[in-house]
DNA sequence: ACTCCTTGTGTGATGTTGTTACGTTGCGAT
DNA sequence: ATCGCAACGTAACAACATCACACAAGGAGT
């Protein structure tokens, strides 16, 4: 039903690099252009491995000495979200790199309220129940997201 | 499993009045004070019967000629959310009066992207699946919300 | 009645998040 | 070469949310 998603630490450099390569493939296939700027934004999200606000991304982009306006970041984020490479966590007004870019719609997120780490899973059962509910009430369902809040294993043991 | 929630039109005056009375009972039982201001905010949300931004509520409060600051509205909304009389729809940064104040945790919302009407349901199956997922990954689950987007029956036929 | 304490309110300033509008650049296709 | 389109740069602004601090109302204990 659902693969539990690791909050555990792991080889970041490797996972970032792999994800970037996968993203390049995906964009090429979709005929979308993963420009240096967009790529950099994705990289920033992948490196942090947790949800970042747009303005956090902004300031990290700025680190390179370039002056950057919000628009730029939002455009890049919109693109990445449209490609399914990034998700927006509405609860936090923040963005997180997708850890399973191939899978279908209806993601579920476990969001740590302390460190903003985000684990992503797919709850197929939910999709079904919701489809049924929508059908009963005549609602044309286009999109669903489940956001759960709590403490990740790390912050839990720290507390 | 889930009672589908009506998008259909119905007797507003009546449903608003009933809901206000129910809210008064609930607050009395909880030892919480539903002051005129808080009551008025709830009434505004109930009347509109869709998700309103804090500043929309603000301007309707202002209609009465009183000058009102955001703080006031946010305080009232925080109170109402804490009492479970109002939900925040994170996706919209907006608030909606709860249509089933007695029920448990883990609400699901069908949000119309056109008119912001919101139907609320309870998906018990989801809660179970999520509990399991959280347990597997060592996550201390505290709270979950499902937000779905699409078109309500009204906007659907209008389109 | 008087003080103390808690809870709610009034007000201004400020911080954060997200968008609009408009002009420029780079690059491929006719 | 020039047209058209997508991406980018820049500035201003709008929408959403919080902070800090002062005041008012009402109950509890003396």
Structural class of chain A: alpha+beta
Q: Element order, helices and strands of chain A? A: HHHHEEEEHEH
Binned, the helix content of chain A reads: 40-55%
Poorly predicted segments of chain A: none
Strand order of the largest sheet of chain A: 4-3-5
- Beta-strand percent range of chain A: 15-25%
Main sheet makeup of chain A: 3 strands, mixed
Number of helices of chain A: 6
Beta strands of chain A, count:
5
Q: What's the Cα radius of gyration of chain A?
A: 17 Å
Oligomer: homodimer
- The residue-averaged pLDDT of chain A reads 89
> Which two chains form the greatest contact, residue counts included?
A-B, 41 and 41 residues
Distance from first to last alpha carbon of chain A: 31 Å
Structure description:
The structure is a homodimer of 159-residue chains. With 159 residues, chain A is α+β, with helices and mostly antiparallel strands. The first copy, chain A, is built from six helices and five strands; from the N terminus they run ααααββββαβα. Chain A has helices at 12-30, 36-48, 54-62, 70-82, 124-137, 153-158, and strands spanning 86-89, 94-97, 107-112, 118-122, 140-151. In chain A, the strands form two sheets. Chain A has a three-stranded mixed β-sheet with strand order 4-3-5. The first copy, chain A, has a two-stranded antiparallel ribbon with strand order 1-2. In chain A, a hairpin with a 5-residue loop joins β3 and β4 (118-122). Chain A is globular, with a radius of gyration of 17 Å. The model of chain A has no long low-confidence stretch (mean pLDDT 89). Chains A and B meet through β3, α5 and β5 of A and β3, α5 and β5 of B. β5 of chain A pairs antiparallel with β5 (140-151) of chain B. The first copy, chain A, binds a DNA duplex (30 and 30 nucleotides) through residues 33, 35, 37-38, 53-55, 67-72, 74-75, 79, 93.
